[in-house]
Each structure stands twice: as structure tokens, then as C-alpha cells.
């Protein structure tokens, strides 16, 4: 299997906080980790089995063997934001099914 697609795992910073002196929320930079993976659209049958209907914007992400999956809040693929729906770990490879969501 080839792993030609670059994605970014994003974990929001736990250092973000409310500053009472400024009266606003201070966002710190999120932790980002790039990875080369295999990204494909989810098949029709699998979409119906998982979601009960055909979903647009759903993808399957497969990692290389022995890849350590980082902690993440969302994944960015080609400038779009995705949230994890389902995760599996067959044969030492992670397989994530993600759904596109509106960015903050």
C-alpha cells in the first residue's frame, strides 16, 4: 500500500485561557503533527453500514505499520477539517474513518 497523502493531526493547546485584565480569551498555538498516510473516500456499502445513509465528506485514513497515533482533536486534509468517527487497529495499522466538519 502506498502512503502518498499528507495530513495534519491537530491538538488544541491546554494553555489557552481567559485573561481578565484584557477581557478576552487568549488562544495559544495548537500542537500539530504531519504524517504521510493513505486517504480514500469511504465506500457506499460501508457508509450505509456505519451511518445509515451515504455521507459525503467521509474518508478512510490508513497509517503505515507501527505508526504511533498522536493525541488529536481534529485532522486537517487539504485545508479541510475532519473529526474521527471510528478507529480500528488491524494488523498494527491504524484505520480511521473521519467525517468533514465546519472549521471553527
Mind explaining what this structure looks like?
The structure is a single chain. The protein is mainly beta. Helix content is about 10%, strand content about 45%. It contains one helix and eight strands. The chain has a six-stranded antiparallel β-barrel. Strands 2-3 form a two-stranded antiparallel sheet. A hairpin with a 6-residue loop joins β7 (about 80-90) and β8 (about 95-100). The mean pLDDT is about 90.
Topology:
Elements: E1 5-11, E2 17-19, E3 24-26, E4 31-41, H1 44-51, E5 58-62, E6 74-77, E7 80-88, E8 95-101
Antiparallel strand pairs: 1-4, 1-6, 2-3, 4-5, 5-8, 6-7, 7-8
The helix-strand sequence is EEEEHEEEE
The helix content, as a percent range, equals under 10%
Alpha plus pi helix count:
1
Low-pLDDT runs of 5+ residues are none
Distance separating the two termini: 33 Å
- Structural class by helix and strand composition: mainly beta
